[in-house]
Amino acid sequence: MTVENACRAVRVSRPVFYRRFPNADALVSHVIAERFAGLVVPDTGTLAGDVRAVLASWRGLLTDPATLAGVSRVTAAQHRTGVDATGILGPCEAAIGFVLDRAVERGHACSGVDAGFVLSLALGTLLMRVLVPGTPEPDDVFLDRLAETVTATATREHARL
Questions:
Q1: Which of 12, 95, 120, 161 is the most buried (most CB within 10 A)?
Q2: Alpha helices in 45-88 (DSSP H)
C-alpha cells in the first residue's frame, strides 16, 4: 500500500491525505486500531468466559492475513518512520479493562488489577503464536488454557494488592 494508491482508492488528493496522516504507515496503524476497536466484548457471565471471548476475537483478527500484515507493517515502521504502533494497543487494553471492570461489578474480582499487565500476558502470548514461525496455531484448546491462565493471574495479582 502506498499513499498514491490510498488516495486513488478513496478519491482524495495527496494534500488531503497528508493533513490526516503523516505517511502510509500511520494510515495502516489507524485502520488496524479501528479493527480492534470494533470488537464487541460479549457478556458471558464470568471473567474466564469474557477473557476467552476477547481472545477468540483477537485470534480472529490476527489470523486474518490483512490484519496480520498491517500489524507487522506498523510494528516494523515504528522504528523506521516513527509511526505510533502503540495506538493498536489502546483498543485491546480498553477491552481487557472493560472485562476486568465488569468482573469487579459482578463480584468476581476486585479493583486494582493492572490491565496493562493482563493485556501483555494475554495479547503477547497470542501474538507469539500468530507471528513466530514454527509455533503451533492458537487453536481452541490453546485459547481455553490461555484464558484460564489470564484469569488466574488477574485474580492472583489482585490478591497481592
A1: 95
A2: 47-62, 65-81
